[in-house]
Amino acid sequence: MSTSQQPEGTDTAAPDTPAMSAAAVVPAPAVEAVAAGTPRAESGAGQAAGDGAAEPRSARPASLSPSRAGDFMQCPLLYRFRVIDRLPEKPSEAATRGTLVHAVLERLFDDPAAERTVPRAKAMIPGQWSRLLESRPELGELFAEDSGGERLSRWLGEAEQLVERWFTLEDPTRLEPAEREMFVETELESGLRLRGVIDRVDIAPTGDVRIVDYKTGKAPRPEYSEGALFQMKFYALVIWRLKHVVPRRLQLVYLGSGDVLTYDPVPADLERMERKLLALWEAIRHATETGDWRPRPTKLCGWCDHQSVCPEFGGTPPVYPLSVSPPASAEDGQGRMGPV
To answer: How many other C-beta atoms can be found within 10 angstroms of the C-beta atom of residue 5?
Structure first.
């Protein structure tokens, strides 16, 4: 594993790499169009329905995505608020900026290789912002009080800086992604369904697969790199179970700091990831059945939209919308006492 600035010319996917259809990686029924305007939080938390098709309101969890897995590991009660209660969350400038940058980097590859330039990418930003506003009008609330447009102008300028920095890390004229914003889904032998959206999949002429994810924040310190790779190993596991091919490389591109974090997985890594996800899903299943969703206070609580209904801040959660398993009867099992 390494964290470094990647020099130009080291991309494994050559410009003449033939594009691979979505069905070549994922069976056709599992490939779905990703809704335009889905916010991407820089923290990785995302939105409650931000990893593919939304499940019915107040339904029992039926699948697991990297974002929702991250929610549960961060705070089980946060998972409940997002997945079970589906409480609304206010849009943030950081998350929306991440969505905007992702949209530009995705659609830049619609242009011929020679036209994928910094000026062209920066020129796409206003149009993609308009497109986001059309699909999600509530995002306009971010700048509702910005009558002079100064904040919006500064925010768009920050998005330009992130897009421009990407060109120092990768050379889009030498890349022909096989897939962009690809929805993937698979069901493990255990019955656990995994799903998510991969930013980019590159296929080298040798057939090697590289999974790429853009991050608009800064690279983590080395001691936190394992947590940063959780999402990528999740995606690698899905690809492995679908196509029986272990991705050659996992690559995180941090536009906030100009770093590239890479990891080359082996089957043992993905087997460990599968065991971890199964244990995590069992904990989610238990909490769902018992209604026991305990908060886990951390410094991230300061950014949570749900403090007003969180016991850690003196709030009361909404009435649990699902039925719960009744407690075991005192008369069940061994140790039953008769009349005294």
So the answer is: 10
> How do beta strands 249-254 and 209-215 pair?
parallel
- Eight-class DSSP state of 64: B
Lowest mean pLDDT among 52-61, 135-144, 264-273: 52-61
**Going by DSSP bridges, is the β-strand pair 193-203/209-215 parallel, antiparallel, or unpaired?**
antiparallel
- What mean pLDDT is predicted for residues 250-274? 97
The two three-digit tokens of residue 157, written as one number: 């300028």
Task: Give the C-alpha separation, 238 to 269, whole Å.
Answer: 13
3-state secondary structure 195-242: EEEEEEEEECCCCCEEEEEEECCCCCCHHHHHHHCHHHHHHHHHHHHH
Let me know: does 165 contact 255? Beta carbons within 8 Å: yes
**DSSP annotation of 82:** I
Q: Phi, psi (5° rounding) for residue 321? A: -80, -5
Supply 134's token pair: 């059309």
Q: Is the confidence at residue 8, as pLDDT, over 90?
A: no
Please state the rounded mean pLDDT for residues 95-110: 98
pLDDT at residue 41 tops 90: no
Radius of gyration, CA atoms only, the chain: 22
